[in-house]
Amino acid sequence: MPKQIRLGILTPSSNTALEPLTYQIVSSIPNVSVHFSRFPVTAISLSPEGLAQFDHSVIAQAAQLLAHAEVDMIGWSGTAAGWIGFEDDEKLCQAITKATGIPATTSVLALNKALGIFKVKKLGLVTPYLDDVQERIVKNYNAIGMGVTSETERHLRVVKNTDVALIGEDVLKTLVGQVVDGGADAVSTFCTNLIAAHKVELWEAKYGVPVLDTVTTVTWDMLRQCGVDTKAIKGWGRIFQET
């Protein structure tokens, strides 16, 4: 019998997308289960209140609840490091492991690993965020050589997190197509409250580039670090088959 593996996922309190999608992604692997812990996040902005939602001490408390379930790995399924800075997620993972003794990763750190594996030079960013939030994300990705331009980014200026999950598939498909047409050699649907992960394989077939959804990336990285062969996961994109 293969070892039972428990994945612990940290979830923004207002997120309604990532839990069902994550369950579906791992459903074909019988010895893997996923468990969730929430902390308060309701709106995305660069205001002091918006940034304070991602205080490490609050997130670590939620992680400690996952530790009660003796999970094998903890993943922050969220993208705040995109605008706060990638080093913030590195410090967060250290704080989680210090508080729980359990290794940790995040959607953004996992995405950045995947970008390296796929040798991405021109990243397409599709997000629901405000102009100033998007500008920060673009700046941070350009700083690591991802070549994001006005032609390869699209954002929808949504603040309230529950509204993000209402963005339709047709809208997302159009935006993915636009950034590919703009020259992107890979695309990230960058927000874990976008209902996008289940469409990745279709978009990859249509547009011919990897599509890296942030619900998917953290799940992929956790499985890899737990020694799971991700090729068993079919229908959720090239990341599981080619990495």
From TrEMBL:
Gene3D superfamilies (alphabetical): 3.40.50.12500
Protein name: Asp/Glu racemase
InterPro entries hit by this protein: Iso_Racemase_Enz_sf, MaiA/AMDase
Species of provenance: Suillus plorans
